[in-house]
Write a structure and sequence with these properties.
By secondary structure, the protein is mainly β. Helix content is 15%, strand content 37%. Helix 1 runs antiparallel to helix 2. The longest helix has 11 residues, at 25-35.
Length: 286
């Protein structure tokens, strides 16, 4: 084995945002901003048709439309789970009648948003590198036998490193992204929720090769504009059979928003217990 392979980074260098539609910005604000403690982007999409919510160096994009729900869950890193539990207790009455719920499970807080998306919240620590707030991973449920083909697709088409393993009796594929992010595709034999159009946005170092392969196979769903393209169908590279649907917004490093600095607030700040100079939350551990 070559030395220092742990220093290698695959072609996908960043998972920037997860996009799920929501029908009500007020309820979304209660859950994502007041409850989870994240920050609405103060500069872009500040109207009523969409809201961008900053999570460390990542975002949620939440267009105001029919709700979308990922079959799986989204991993979150936060600086303090005890503070999260306090905030969730404070928003329970405001979210009555929705699908919102939460509970503590060992070192994890598992929460469901008002429309059914599941979030697993972890406290910052060595497991997530220097990330103190962010989206380290997204896990998707996939059909039996799909994990191997999906990992193969990411390796051959997008140039990302992937691994296959079995966890708690379930085969899964893991695709590495940048320094401390990844995607998980866990096989299940239960009926899957129909794909509803949610998407993820990633940045790649080599833009032309994935585009060329996908274009040749007729898989580009949105042509290149503003340094990005989109595709939806993940196929088996051997034979081309469709395996899984997940729209990817694929951006080059020339995209003007690459490495954009996001505003993050310290959710512990309050009017009565105000601490001068502590308004901002640093998304990484110093």
């Amino acid at each position: 084995m070559a030395a220092y392979t742990e220093e290698d980074v695959g072609n996908i260098v960043l998972l920037e945002h997860v996009n799920v539609q929501i029908p009500d910005q007020a309820l979304a604000t209660l859950f994502y901003v007041v409850g989870l403690g994240f920050t609405r982007d103060p500069y872009l999409n500040v109207g009523l048709n969409n809201m961008w919510v900053n999570v460390g160096e990542q975002q949620f994009h939440l267009p105001t439309r029919t709700p979308q729900v990922i079959d799986g869950h989204i991993g979150l890193v936060l600086p303090d789970l005890s503070a999260l539990e306090t905030r969730f207790s404070g928003i329970q009455d405001g979210l009555k009648g929705t699908r919102f719920r939460w509970h503590r499970d060992g070192d994890t807080v598992i929460a469901t948003c008002p429309w059914g998306n599941e979030y697993r919240c972890y406290e910052a620590g060595a497991k997530f590198g220097d990330m103190s707030m962010g989206i380290p991973y997204v896990e998707f449920s996939v059909p039996p036998g799909a994990a191997s083909a999906i990992v193969n697709f990411y390796e051959r088409v997008l140039g990302a490193a992937g691994t296959l393993k079995t966890e708690n009796g379930s085969p899964l594929g893991r695709v590495e992204i940048g320094r401390q992010q990844f995607l998980v595709f866990r096989e299940t034999d239960r009926p899957l929720r129909p794909y509803d159009g949610h998407h993820i946005a990633v940045y790649v170092a080599n833009f032309s090769q994935p585009y060329g392969i996908l274009k040749e196979r007729g898989l580009i769903s949105e042509e290149v504009r503003n340094h990005q393209f989109r595709f939806k169908d993940i196929v088996d590279p051997v034979g081309g059979a469709p395996v899984f649907a997940l729209e990817h917004e694929v951006r080059s490093l020339h995209h003007p928003m690459f490495a954009r600095s996001f505003v993050n607030r310290d959710a512990k700040q309050s009017q009565r217990g105000y601490r001068r100079g502590r308004d901002a939350q640093i998304p990484y551990q110093e």
